[in-house]
Specification:
This is Anti-sigma regulatory factor (Ser/Thr protein kinase). It comes from Saccharothrix variisporea. It holds the Pfam family HATPase_c_2. Keywords: Kinase, Serine/threonine-protein kinase, Transferase. Helix content is 32%, strand content 27%. With 241 residues, it is an alpha/beta fold. It folds into 2 domains: 110 residues, Transcription Regulator spoIIAA (2-Layer Sandwich); 119 residues, Heat Shock Protein 90 (2-Layer Sandwich). The strands form 2 sheets. Strands 1, 2, 3, 4, 5 and 6 form a 6-stranded mixed β-sheet that branches. The protein has a 5-stranded antiparallel β-sheet with strand order 7-8-9-11-10, covered by helices on one side. The relative contact order is 0.12.
């Protein structure tokens, strides 16, 4: 049996309606579909589970925990469940996902619990050595507009390393996105190269410390495959950290 799902947009959230059977053969497809929804950065991913959604075993309900963990730091989109009947709730709890993924009686109640609006800005940069300079200007201007003087210096260091990595190793025009939520600044750079960034020891690359520096000054960092190819390398900075 197959598993399909429709995605509607409601108040900026992606509302997912899966239909079919979730089992080992459809697990990866469903997981990747939910991740794709989250990477498009809606205000939330709301999964509606009704009688059209069948579950083979409690273990496959871990798909919701997997997606929640993948997107919790970046892009920081909440993943919630709606419409759990007694059978789905039992499977969710037996599979362990109930400890991590919130669930609500209705879509309206789920949307009412979303985080306050987040601030976001983004820009495309050329596949050129001047990209790092342009990225620093963009970050500086954005931090001034968002009143983030305490995080500016670290943000300039991080964006320089991420953009230079995208140009030098991704061989593509980077897409830079900044997002502010709960006073934490997320910096994300997308390129066309799917290979994860390589962590080098300090001094092994002229002109910078690369991912080692990003790791040192960020609260958390990571990389995420981009649907259709390429990747996003991201870092989250806490003001005053």
């Amino acid at each position: 049996m197959t598993l399909t799902f429709d995605v509607d947009t409601e108040a900026g959230a992606a509302v997912v309606h899966p239909a079919g059977r979730l089992d080992l053969s459809t697990y990866a497809q469903f997981r990747d579909g939910l991740l794709k929804c989250a990477l498009e950065e809606p205000t939330a991913v709301v999964v509606v589970l009704d009688d059209d959604f069948e579950v083979a075993t409690p273990a496959v309900m871990s798909v919701f925990t997997t997606v929640w963990m993948r997107v919790s730091e970046w892009p920081g989109v909440p993943v919630v469940l709606v419409g759990l009947g007694a059978a789905h709730r039992r499977l969710l709890d037996e599979g362990g996902a109930g400890r991590f993924v919130r669930h609500y009686p209705s879509v309206r109640e789920a949307l009412a619990q979303r985080e306050p609006d987040r601030r976001r800005d983004e820009t495309w940069l050329p596949a050129s050595p001047v990209s790092a300079l342009m990225a620093r200007r963009f970050v500086r201007d954005t931090c001034v507009r968002w009143n983030l003087p305490e995080v500016l210096d670290d943000a300039l260091l991080v964006v320089t390393e991420l953009v230079e990595n995208a140009v030098d190793h991704g061989h593509s025009a980077p897409h830079l996105r900044l997002e502010l939520r709960d006073r934490a600044l997320a910096i994300a750079v997308r390129d066309d190269e799917p290979t994860p960034p390589e962590r080098r020891e300090p001094g092994t690359r002229p002109g910078g410390r690369g991912i080692a520096l990003v790791e040192e000054i960020s609260r958390v960092w990571g990389h995420t495959p981009w649907p259709g190819g390429g990747k996003v390398v991201w870092a989250v900075l806490d003001p005053g950290a």
